[in-house]
Write a structure and sequence with these properties.
4 strands, 4 helices, about 35% helix, about 130 residues, alpha+beta, four-stranded antiparallel sheet
Length: about 130
């Protein structure tokens, strides 16, 4: 799904910090185009969360997740899929930036169910 996404016409890293992070990672002698590496390029090199295990780092309100296998960042629709939400093509009239901001302030759907279940269990005296 990710490789053939027509929405994937995203901007390339344009700030010096984003380019520096990608350049440093490119010089690590790792086959990044064949790896599952994903990182948040909006963070500094010391704070950037990088995952090699196929999991996505924590989304912040300004996160731009770069997938090295694809050579691009994830689109807001793909980020919604990662959060367990159905991706609407128009995002309810929100801009991609506003959608990314809301996703950074949200929780995965399964986590919300777990928190609600624990809350109901405590209220019912089951826990």
């Amino acid at each position: 799904m990710l490789a053939s996404n027509p929405e994937a016409k995203m901007r390339s890293p344009d700030s010096p910090r984003e380019r520096n992070l990608l350049n440093i990672l490119a010089h690590c002698n790792l086959p990044l185009e064949n790896s599952d590496l994903i990182c948040d390029i909006t963070q500094t090199i010391s704070w950037s969360q990088m995952r090699f295990d196929g999991m996505c780092p924590t989304l912040a309100t300004k996160s731009r997740m770069w997938v090295f296998r694809l050579g691009r960042e994830l689109t807001p629709g793909e980020l919604m899929d990662l959060m367990g939400m159905p991706a609407a093509g128009d995002f309810g009239g929100l801009t991609p930036s506003a959608c990314r901001h809301l996703l950074g302030n949200s929780m995965h759907v399964a986590e919300i169910g777990l928190v609600c279940g624990i809350g109901f269990g405590i209220c019912a005296g089951l826990l």
